[in-house]
Amino acid sequence: METGTGSGTGGGLADLDERIAGCRACPRLVDWREEVARTKRAAFADWTYWGRPVPGFGPADARLLIVGLAPAAHGGNRTGRMFTGDRSGDVLYQALYDVGLASQPTAVSAGDGLELYGVRVTAPVHCAPPANKPTPEERDTCRPWLVRELRLLRPTLRAVVVLGAFGWQAALPAFAEAGWTVPRPRPVFGHGARVRLDDALRPAEGKEEGGGGLDVFGCFHVSQRNTFTGRLTPEMLREVLRTAAGAAGETGLRAPGGAG
C-alpha cells in the first residue's frame, strides 16, 4: 500500500493503515469513490486515482492528532493521502509548516517527500462521500477504525485538533471507546473550544496500560467555504495549532516559517 513518507511506520499503525485501505463496508461510499476514480476530473485525467479508503498520515509516536471529516473526491481519493491535492489541504499543510510541524508547505502527492513532525492527520470517515456529506450510519460504521487508531496512539498522544462540528461529533464517542473520559453533557463544538479528557484506563489498569490526559481543541474546518469567506483565516488556524502543539509538548523539529 502506498502511504508516502511520514506515514505511520509502527507495526500496529502500518497494519491498521493497510486494513483501512481494503475496507468495503459502506456500499454507497464504495460506489462513489470508485466512480470518481474511473471518471476523474479533466485536470487530473492523466492520474491513476487511489480510489480506496484513505488511511491516516503521520508518525506512529505522534503527540498531536488532527481529525478532519473525510477525504475529498479529487484530493485524498486521488492521491491516497489525507488532505493532499486539494484546496483544504493547501491551507492545512501551509499552517502546519508555518508553525514548525511539517517539512514543507505543500502536499501534492503521496510521494512528494512531505514529513510531519509529532503530528498525525486522520478522519472519522476514510472514504470520499458524495457532496462531502457522509451519513450518520457511515460515520458510525467507520468509527472502529478511529478508535483503533486512537488506542495505538495512546502511549504518546496528548492533544487533538478537531476540524468542524461533524468531526467533533464523531470523535467524542471514539475518545470514550479508546479510553478517555468524555464529560457529560458532551462538550459543544466551537472554534477555539478546549476540553480536557482524563485518562480512564490509568486508574484501572496502571500507568503502563494508560496513556495520559488529552486536550481536545475545536477549530473551524479548512473547507473552501470557511477559508474563502474568512470565517477561518490562516492566523486563526495557526493559533489553534500552536496552542494544541504546546499542550501536546510538541514544538516541531524545524524553525517556524515566516508567517507569524
From TrEMBL:
Belongs to the uracil-DNA glycosylase (UDG) superfamily. Type 5 (UDGb) family. InterPro entries: UDG_Type-4/5, UdgB-like, Uracil-DNA_glycosylase-like, Uracil-DNA_glycosylase-like_sf. Transmembrane segments: none annotated. It holds the Pfam family UDG. It comes from Streptomyces broussonetiae. It comes from the Bacteria. This is Type-5 uracil-DNA glycosylase. Keywords: 4Fe-4S, DNA damage, DNA repair, Hydrolase, Iron, Iron-sulfur, Metal-binding. Residues 55-241 form the Uracil-DNA glycosylase-like domain.
